[in-house]
């Protein structure tokens, strides 16, 4: 029978439903309402979205490729493949078995990931291959590879709709399934890294007014570094931590510090009180351990940036295409967990007024102490030079950090002596 309008008296199959010969068994639950072929009915895109949402909620993570294949047929596409980025953001790994991994830095789909933009190219067979970023909020998850004979505005709109739904599905399902975690790894992960990775928030968060993005290496062997960030209607919260040592005890120290930070933050604590909560928690549960770090708050409306620096390298302020020398240097305070041994003074919070487009960079000492070719250290000067080059190239904040950390790793042949963590905050004030 033709695939156009259904014959009178027959109920057509719902969008995304498998063909009779398929081995797929739909998950239990109400079926989406029947509808004619999307291309022939006004509002078909909405009906397709309804059907997709109904099925994606109950689909297992690794069932998503099959679900996408069926939806691709209904949209009029030849095929759609989901690619997830690996932990180190070097490769795009297909969820469909048997397909090759794609290098991120040297490929067209990698270009789409790096720029967060659509990329279309002709295939040797004469059709088109479209690469569409998978993004949840500000977090880059991977790429959707779409093979089609033509890409008209209606079809592209439906592809974007599919990408949006899949990004939300991937984000929600990876919270309770190991499937995506296994898929995104290229080597085994040790126990301290596993513990800290489970604690970390998404690499990138943000809205129209601010973004916070972070990277952490060595990805599979981290010991005591971590980052945290959170967004409310009025404030961007961000923090970086570096615990003493490089073992499981270091990871436990960082875990307690992050938990204390979140607990106090969610209770509405001001910065000095928040740091005091971490001090007390470490003093009570891990009295032999300590942790350096910086806890920050950015007011999204007026750009007031506040921070507490607890024995950590000072933040760097990037304005335009240069790093402002010592702009955020302030008197040092003791590491978290050790204030009583160094000072009885209460924790101090500092503040400055940012300008539109300013970036603030937090980093751990594993970054500047990283070795480069010839045996010397990377150092602050070389490090800031790499930051300036990224800003001059106009790269998004997340991409600038990805390039910087890869440059550090490449100089050391992926053999870091210490954890290296970067967190970049960018303020984009609301327009009047």
Summarize the model shown:
This protein has 432 residues and is of the alpha+beta class. The chain is built from 12 helices and 17 strands.
Strand order in the sheet with the most strands: 3-2-1-6-5-4
Radius of gyration, whole Å: 24 Å
* Poorly predicted regions: 1-42
Portion of residues in helices? 25-40%
Give the strand content. Answer: 15-25%
Which class do the helix and strand fractions yield? alpha+beta
Shape: globular
Question: What separation lies between the terminal Cα atoms?
Answer: 58 Å
Mean pLDDT across all amino acids:
84
Biggest sheet overview: 6 strands, antiparallel
Order of helices and strands: HHEEEHEEEHHHEEEEHHEEEEHEEHHHE
> What is the strand tally?
17
Total count of helical runs of at least 4 residues: 12
Give a structural overview.
Helix content is 32%, strand content 24%. With 432 residues, the protein is of the alpha+beta class. The relative contact order is 0.09. The strands form three sheets. A six-stranded antiparallel sheet has the order 3-2-1-6-5-4, sandwiched between helices. Strands 7-8-17-16-13-14 form a six-stranded antiparallel sheet. It has a five-stranded antiparallel sheet with strand order 9-10-11-12-15. The termini are far apart. The longest helix has 21 residues, at 153-173. Mean pLDDT is 84; it is low at 1-42.
């Amino acid at each position: 029978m033709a695939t156009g309008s259904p014959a009178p008296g027959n109920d057509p199959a719902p969008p995304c439903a498998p063909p009779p010969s398929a081995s797929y068994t739909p998950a239990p639950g109400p079926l989406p309402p029947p509808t004619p072929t999307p291309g022939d009915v006004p509002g078909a895109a909405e009906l397709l979205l309804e059907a997709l949402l109904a099925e994606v909620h109950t689909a297992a993570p690794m069932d998503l490729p099959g679900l996408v294949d069926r939806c691709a047929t209904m949209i009029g596409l030849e095929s759609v493949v989901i690619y997830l980025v690996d932990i180190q953001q070097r490769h795009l790994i297909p969820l469909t078995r048997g397909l090759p991994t794609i290098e991120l830095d040297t490929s067209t789909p990698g270009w789409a990931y790096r720029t967060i933009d659509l990329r279309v190219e002709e295939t040797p067979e004469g059709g088109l291959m479209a690469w569409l970023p998978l993004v949840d909020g500000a977090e880059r998850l991977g790429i959707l590879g779409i093979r089609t004979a033509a890409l008209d505005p209606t079809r592209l709109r439906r592809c974007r709709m599919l990408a949006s739904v899949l990004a939300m599905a991937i984000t929600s399902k990876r919270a309770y399934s190991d499937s995506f975690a296994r898929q995104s790894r290229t080597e085994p992960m040790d126990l301290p890294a596993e513990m800290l990775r489970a604690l970390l928030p998404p690499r990138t968060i943000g809205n129209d007014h601010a973004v916070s993005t972070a990277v952490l290496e060595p990805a599979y062997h981290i010991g005591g570094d971590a980052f945290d960030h959170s967004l409310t209607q009025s404030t961007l919260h961000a923090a970086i931590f570096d615990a003493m040592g490089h073992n499981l005890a270091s990871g436990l120290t960082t875990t307690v510090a992050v938990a204390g930070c979140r607990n106090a933050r969610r209770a509405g604590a001001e910065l000095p009180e928040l740091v005091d909560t971490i001090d007390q928690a470490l003093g009570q549960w891990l009295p032999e351990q300590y942790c350096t770090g910086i806890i920050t708050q950015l007011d999204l409306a007026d750009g007031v940036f506040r921070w507490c620096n607890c024995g950590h390298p000072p933040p760097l302020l990037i304005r335009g295409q240069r790093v402002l020398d010592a702009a955020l240097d302030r008197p040092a305070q003791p590491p978290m967990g050790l204030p009583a041994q160094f000072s009885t003074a209460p924790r101090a919070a500092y503040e400055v007024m940012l300008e539109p487009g300013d970036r603030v960079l937090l980093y751990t000492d594993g970054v500047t102490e990283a070795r480069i070719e010839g045996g010397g250290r990377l150092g602050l000067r070389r490090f800031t030079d790499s930051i300036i080059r990224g800003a001059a190239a106009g790269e998004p904040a997340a991409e600038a950090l990805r390039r910087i950390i890869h440059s550090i790793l490449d100089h050391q042949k992926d053999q870091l002596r210490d954890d290296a963590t970067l967190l970049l905050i960018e303020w984009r004030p609301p327009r009047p």
